[in-house]
Amino acid sequence: MKRLSILLLMWAFVLVGFAQQQPSAEAQQWYKKGAWRQGWKVKPYDQMDVEVFYQQYQKHPAMYDSIFQWLRSIDPLKLEPGSGVVKWSHARANVQDLALRTPENTQWEQHHKAIDLQWVVTGSERLAVTRDTTILEPKNKYNPKKDVQNFKFKKAPTAEQYILLDSEPKKFYLFFPSDIHECCGIARKAETVRKIVVKIDYFD
């Protein structure tokens, strides 16, 4: 019981320290209503930036509705792996069979022009995310063609500066340009996972 209390306290510190803007009342109401999911039963991860999602959705609601309708309708295990298996006006879906990696072979990355919607449908992938740019330094220059820049910690981070997320099929993850994230990590065991990634254009 004492150990459980300590773990719960540590997790509370993580949630408090993880930088997340408070969504507006309008965004919160829209999000909780859940009509945007188009009947898709998979839920977003708890620390998603609701305000940014709300603002992005309002710019292309019909496209977002179509994306979530597609996610609701598919059997992800019957899809052939590949890039751009479905395309929308400002988005494309990729299907991956991803071999998970040890920590020394994963990288922190940031996209400037795209939102990542990630859904791991088999197995469990370790993800991580931070919005605290002060703890990171660039490993390379931003590559506009690939829309990616990689980062590393300046020093060992504290638990409240980032969060670890071991994926589960009943949850999906939306990473915005403000979400510097790490993917492809081993969670429970070394395995190959089936993953759907929808790359969605980000609009300023």
H/E series = HHEHHEEEEEEEEEEE
What is the CATH third-level topology name? Answer: Jelly Rolls
Q: What structural class do helix, strand and pairing data support?
A: alpha+beta
Strand order of the largest sheet: 1-10-5-12-3-2
Number of domains: 1
Question: What profile does the largest beta sheet have?
Answer: 6 strands, mixed
In short:
The chain has 204 residues and is of the alpha+beta class.
Can you offer a commentary on this structure?
This protein has 204 residues and is an alpha+beta fold. It has one domain: Sandwich (Jelly Rolls). 24% of the residues lie in helices and 33% in strands. It is built from four helices and twelve strands. It has a six-stranded mixed sheet with strand order 1-10-5-12-3-2. A hairpin with a 2-residue loop joins β2 and β3 (91-99). α2 packs across α3. The radius of gyration is 17 Å and the shape is globular. It starts with a helix and ends with a strand. Mean pLDDT is 91; it is low at 1-17.
What is the strand and helix layout of this fold?
Blueprint: H1 2-17, H2 25-33, E1 43-44, H3 50-59, H4 61-73, E2 82-88, E3 91-99, E4 108-110, E5 114-120, E6 125-130, E7 136-138, E8 149-153, E9 163-166, E10 171-175, E11 180-186, E12 192-201
Parallel strand pairs: 1-10
Antiparallel strand pairs: 2-3, 3-12, 4-8, 4-11, 5-10, 5-12, 6-9, 6-11, 7-8
Helix pairs in contact: 2-3
What are the defining features of this structure?
six-stranded mixed β-sheet; 204 residues; Jelly Rolls; alpha+beta; six-stranded antiparallel β-sheet; single chain; globular; 4 helices; disordered N terminus
